[in-house]
Structures are given as structure tokens and as C-alpha cells.
Specification:
450 residues, alpha/beta, TIM Barrel, binds 2-acetamido-2-deoxy-beta-D-glucopyranose, GH18_Domain-Containing, hydrolase
Length: 450
């Protein structure tokens, strides 16, 4: 009742506005939950939590995120799915929807299909009352290795048209382009510079953590979701393609993969290659962080740690399928390192894929889980701005060196850089010291002066 009076007054004052508002359906019980958050949270970083729709987002730790992004499969007609938007706004957070961009081959921005796509996105934004449009560009670039300059230009024109159409309704919308770990055709000719074109339309570039393996043409073996060496290389390529770090949002996965090995020699798990000499990733099974913790607590805590990739893994033998398996995942050490990288390289923020991966909703207070998940990245949001410049300078050099070493194929060099990075990061990182693996510490300290 109390709320009604002011809104009535407002309506009288701004009749036409209200009339328009009334026409777009708000699925929320409290109609105000369809409005964008008014309060500026004052965060300098973004933490986007992606949902895959499998858990109830209400129970998530909202203090540690700035936005919720729902999958493209969500349908506003579903009461439950629509409610995620109401919850997000009610918590004072921004709400985003994912839209797929799966054009392939020759792209014609004046074609019927392109015009329909622009219409569709504008309509989705309106129905969902979304503040963020996350355009998934990964399919376009992964299906279409042979796209050309004019296709990229056409694609950009579609995005520009989409943004302009939405801007007519509201000007608060941000477009987040979901991209792969390195820019399309990074190493090839300069005429293929997609990202340079896209800086007008992509407010954020979200690096998709699953793209590191999905878009892989290298030797076919099990590896972590985000190999640190590749991450630094990809970032430097984005920089040189005119995407500044402060637009980059690092996507980290809260899931891992169980790879079925054809052979396991040392710790190298080799997999089958299909005829195209690409890896056959159908032989891997996604494991959420929740599943790994629940099913394999022992392995989870007794895992090995790959220093070069800075990621944990463990091997096991399945006596039913008679194959060795290698499981790569993320733990507190590897995630903390990535969260710190966001701060040190002054990236814009972090995207968590997916919030649902923790699986459980009731146990967030449980020490182990709490330690390495939700609060870990909260540090970013409370990050103090001072001392950043020197840190950045150092990190810049480190990343440059890492890339140099990578190109030379000098594994040892990269190892030193990584060790250096770990050393450096450790200082920033006091709250997490207690759960770092003892053997990792020893290794670092012993070998650093080699
Ligand atoms: C959403 O669901 C409704 C009814 O269930 C259906 O008619 C509509 O086509 C769906 N929309 C999308 C975009 O799938
Ligand atoms: C693009 O589509 C429009 C409409 O279908 C057509 O008139 C035009 O010729 C197409 N352009 C190219 C380059 O194919
Ligand atoms: C690989 O190539 C062989 C011969 O060219 C063919 O018989 C086989 O079906 C192919 N396998 C796959 C997975 O495409
Ligand atoms: C989990 O641990 C059990 C018991 O050690 C083992 O039998 C099983 O293979 C493990 N599963 C995975 C996915 O690691
Ligand atoms: C072992 O392999 C069998 C057959 O593929 C599968 O059903 C089972 O889930 C596997 N066990 C584990 C622990 O992965």
C-alpha cells in the first residue's frame, strides 16, 4: 500500500511513460523487480555469474556477484525461469540474457535471417527487462574457420544494428561478446581483425573457459580447462588486436572434465584423434565441482598439481571400461591464481561458469566449499585501487615474457615465469595461504633459484 501511492503520483506526472511501461508485461509479482537496479554498488570489477538453469539461483551468494546471466534456452513464458530476473533485480544486481550467434559461412547483414536475428534479440531484451546482452560468438568462430573480412564486417553491422535498436528503448544496455580464448585468426593476416572492428559494439569480451580445449588443434591429450600459458598468450593477442584489458572478462569454469585415455604414460593422457586430426572430445565427461567434491573427496584432496598449467588433476583406472582416466578440475589454488590475475592484469572482471556447478544449495557455509568458491572471488570486489600501477607493470612484463617463451617453445622459461607469477601473487594473497598445497610451496621455494 505504501509503495502504491508514490507510484500512482509518478504515473500521474508521467502519464505517457507509464502507459508504455504497462504494455510490456512484467512477469514479476512485484512490478518494480522488472526495473534495472538503481543503486550503484560501487564495484570497480564485474563478477558475472552464469546460470545453466539447473539450480535455484535464489540461494546463491549474491554479495559476491554483480550480475546474473541466464542461458539462451530460457523462455520468459516459464514462470520459474522468468523469476530469475525478478530475483536478480530484487537483489540489486544486473540481469543478462545469452543470445546465440550461430551464423556460418557467408554472412549477409541485409538478409532476412539477419534482420530477424536483430528483431529477436531486441524483443528478448524487452521481454526479459535485461541490462546485459551476452552474445555468444564462439559458435560463429569455431564452426567457421574460413570466414573472411567481409563476413566479419557483416557480422559487426548486425551487432551494431541490434545495439542501435535496443538503444532506442533504453540506453543502459551493455553488450557482452562471448569470445574464444584468442581472437579469431590471431596469427593469420591482419585483414582478418575482427576484434578491432568490434570494439564499438562489444562493451565486454568474455573469454569462454571451454574454448581452450574445444578450439584446439594441438596434440590430442587431456589438459586443464584454462592452461595459464595459453591464457596469457590469448590476452596478449587481444591487446594487440586493440581490445584493452579493461574490457576483458575472464571466464572461469567451476567444472572439470574426466578424460578417457587411450594411453597414459607418465602423466600424459593421450586420446583418440578423429580423421580431421582434431581431438575427439566426445570421450570426456563433464564433472561439476560439486560432483568432484562429493564423489571423489580423496582424489580431490590428494591430487597432483601441474606447475606449468597451474591446475590440479588426478588419474584413476576404471575397471569397468578398462581405461585409464585423467580428471582435470579447479581447486582453491588454481582459482585463486586466476582471480588474482584479474586484479593484477587489471581485467574488467570475472565470469563464473556456472554458478550451478557447486551443485549443493544448502552447504555453502561448509568450510571446504566456502573456502575455495564463493568468497574467493569476492576479494575482487573489495579490491583496493592503490598499488595497482606497479603491480600492473610487473604483470605486463611477466605476460610478455611468458608469450615470448611460449613462442620459442622454451618450456623451462615459461615455467620460471609461472613460478615467478605464483611467487608474486602469493603476497597479494594472504587470506588463502592456509589451503595451499604444501608440496607446491616446497617446489616453488626450492627451485626458484635454480
Ligand atoms: C516459449 O514457450 C512458449 C510456450 O511454452 C512457446 O510458445 C514459445 O515459442 C517459446 N519461446 C521460445 C523463444 O522458445
Ligand atoms: C544480401 O541479402 C539481400 C536480401 O536478401 C540481397 O538483396 C543481397 O543481394 C544480398 N547481398 C549479398 C552480397 O549477397
Ligand atoms: C575415418 O576415415 C576412414 C577411411 O577414410 C573411414 O572409413 C572412417 O569411417 C572415418 N572415421 C570417422 C570417425 O570419420
Ligand atoms: C571416485 O573414487 C572412487 C573410490 O576411490 C573410485 O572408484 C572412482 O573411480 C572415482 N571416480 C572418479 C570419477 O574419479
Ligand atoms: C567406468 O566405466 C563404466 C563404463 O563406461 C561407466 O559406466 C562408469 O560410470 C565408469 N565409472 C567411473 C567411476 O567413471
Amino acid at each position: 500500500m505504501k509503495l502504491l501511492l508514490p507510484s500512482l503520483l509518478l504515473c500521474l506526472l508521467s502519464g505517457p511513460l507509464c502507459a508504455e511501461h504497462a504494455t510490456d508485461d512484467c512477469p514479476c509479482l512485484n512490478k518494480r523487480d522488472c526495473d534495472p537496479p538503481v543503486k550503484d554498488l560501487g564495484h570497480r570489477k564485474e563478477v558475472f555469474a552464469f546460470s545453466d538453469g539447473s539450480t535455484d539461483v535464489e540461494a546463491w551468494t549474491w554479495e559476491s556477484i554483480t550480475s546474473l546471466i541466464v542461458p539462451s534456452s530460457f523462455n520468459i513464458s516459464s514462470k520459474e525461469e522468468a523469476n530469475t530476473m525478478c530475483i536478480t533485480h530484487n537483489k540489486g544486481r544486473k540481469f543478462g540474457i545469452t543470445v546465440e550467434m550461430d551464423f556460418s559461412g557467408h554472412v549477409n547483414h541485409t538478409s532476412e535471417k539477419a534482420v530477424e536475428w536483430v528483431q529477436f534479440v531486441a524483443q528478448q531484451q524487452k521481454q526479459w527487462h535485461a541490462e546485459i546482452i551476452a552474445v555468444n560468438l564462439v559458435p560463429y568462430f569455431s564452426q567457421d574457420a574460413n570466414s573472411f573480412w567481409h563476413d566479419h564486417v557483416a557480422l559487426i553491422k548486425m551487432l551494431v544494428a541490434m545495439k542501435a535498436k535496443i538503444a532506442k528503448v533504453t540506453d543502459i544496455i551493455k553488450v557482452a561478446c562471448i569470445v574464444s580464448w584468442k581472437p579469431p585468426c590471431a596469427e593469420k593476416d591482419n585483414s582478418c581483425d575482427f576484434t578491432e572492428l568490434s570494439t564499438d559494439v562489444c562493451d565486454f569480451y568474455i573469454l569462454n573457459p571451454d574454448s581452450f580445449t574445444d578450439l584446439d588443434e594441438e596434440k590430442c591429450r587431456a589438459r586443464p580447462n584454462i592452461p595459464l600459458t595459453k591464457l596469457l598468450y590469448g590476452l596478449s593477442e587481444y591487446n594487440s588486436h586493440h581490445v584493452p584489458n579493461n574490457r576483458v572478462i575472464l571466464g572461469v569454469s567451476w567444472h572439470g572434465y574426466d578424460y578417457t585415455c587411450q594411453s597414459l604414460i607418465g602423466n600424459v593422457c593421450s586420446m583418440l584423434e578423429d580423421n580431421s586430426t582434431k581431438c575427439d572430445f566426445s570421450m570426456r565427461r563433464k564433472l561439476t565441482a560439486g560432483e568432484i567434491i562429493q564423489e571423489n573427496v580423496t582424489e580431490f584432496y590428494s591430487h597432483q598439481f601441474d606447475m606449468l598449467y597451474t591446475a590440479p588433476f588426478f588419474n584413476y583406472y576404471n575397471s569397468t571400461d578398462h581405461h585409464h582416466h585423467q580428471v582435470w578440475f579447479e581447486d582453491s589454488t588454481s582459482l585463486t591464481l586466476k582471480y588474482n590475475l584479474v586484479a593484477e592484469l587489471q581485467l574488467r572482471g570475472l565470469a563464473l561458469l556456472y554458478g550451478d556447478d557447486l551443485g549443493l544449495t544448502s552447504d555453502y557455509s561448509d568450510t571446504e566449499k566456502a573456502l575455495w568458491t564463493w568468497p574467493g572471488h569476492t576479494v575482487l570486489l573489495t579490491d583496493s585501487p592503490k598499488s595497482q600501477p606497479d603491480v600492473f607493470h610487473y604483470a605486463d612484463i611477466v605476460s610478455g615474457t611468458a608469450v615470448g617463451c611460449l613462442l620459442l617453445g622454451a618450456a623451462l622459461g615459461v615455467m620460471f615465469v609461472c613460478v615467478g607469477l605464483r611467487k608474486r601473487i602469493k603476497k597479494v594473497n594472504e587470506p588463502f595461504v592456509r589451503d595451499r598445497q604444501a608440496d607446491v610451496q616446497d617446489y616453488t621455494d626450492d627451485d626458484f633459484n635454480l
